[in-house]
Amino acid sequence: MRSRLLRSLSATMAATAALVVGVMAGTASAADPIKVGAIVSATGPASFLGDPEKRVLELYVDRVNQAGGVNGRPVQLTVYDDGGAADKAASFTKRLLESDKVDVIVGGTTTATTMAAVPLVERAETPFISLAGAVVIVEPVKKWVFKTPHTDRMAAEKVMEDMKKRGLTKLALISEDSGFGKSGREQTLAVAKERGIEVVADETYGAKDTDVTAQLTKIRNNAAAQAVLVFGLGQGPAVVTKNYRQLGISLPLYQSHGVASKEFIRLAGGAAETVRLPAAGLVVAAQLPDSDPQKKVVTEFTKVYEEAFSSEVSTFAGHAYDGLMIALDAVKRAGGTDKAKLRDAIEQTKGYVGTGGTVTMSPKDHMGLSLDAFHMVEVKQGDWSLVK
């Protein structure tokens, strides 16, 4: 199901008004608002993820309200910036639940901030759609918790799938000592056993490290290694990439989807050339075949985002867009904001074509994306190129 809500919000302002009014009849000001809460890392080490998320939530809530709201009700957005700190994320989540009394929460930029919120939303029985990557967020399934990005497990699977195509079977892993990095490491080690890939080196680095040449020198001196995978987010992966080139390591270098943003390319500079990673179709929208159901969605979203902010579109902005659209479409299908009904409607999302792929959730799957939703991309001449 490609909802009319999605299409209307991705078009121009004129088309938005024309289409959305048709499915969201009524006068928004005459009804109680739909209260959407958000915790994002708009500042701090994960700001290149959280800032685009915040911008998109504000932009599309405004567009929905200008078009008449959802079923005649305006959307009221309350956003808090946790700065990437788990304790602040927990505090703001508590405020959203107890003081702001939100109907649904969209956010949790990082795995650490998301997991700080999870027990609170579970106890409060309030739907929560995370924007973070680790598989632990939805596996095992938690009744009130959902997520929009692909998982770290999927990233490891996609990387190893590409390695096999290149005839590579021995991997050196270097991961960040953080929530996302730790989970990515665990998933990589597990997937490697399943995929017949031997992990011949297992190094870690700190999120604030400015030099990782010691760890990379060990990898360089490992004669068995055929490829290297970096699992992290923020500035760390760019530091690793620069040090990698400085040491003259010539093995194929992979990153995770945690750096699927032009900000990584800017931070790493020329060192990013030939780096491969799994990413959503959003980063290569123009390169997708016309037959791809995502093509129209990601092309329109890219246009709206870049016109609104005069900056390149971000995968992480897309995660926020998908989270908001899934939530609002669920409100429409649930006929209101009764939390139990809203939770059920989110879980019943089927065929939603978003920026991350086609989403079909179920009681056993609170993400709803398949491995086909990932594309392998490579940095070429300072831009993303679809690996075919």
UniProtKB/TrEMBL annotation:
GO biological process, alphabetically ordered: amino acid transport
Domain Leucine-binding protein: 33-368
InterPro entries for the chain: BCAA_transport, Leu-bd, Peripla_BP_I
Domain of life the protein comes from: Bacteria
A Pfam family reported for this protein in Swiss-Prot or TrEMBL: Peripla_BP_6
Keyword vocabulary terms for this entry: Amino-acid transport, Signal, Transport
Keyword DNA-binding: no
Signal peptide: 1-30
Family per record: Belongs to the leucine-binding protein family.
Protein name, UniProt field: ABC transporter substrate-binding protein
Species name: Azospirillum thermophilum
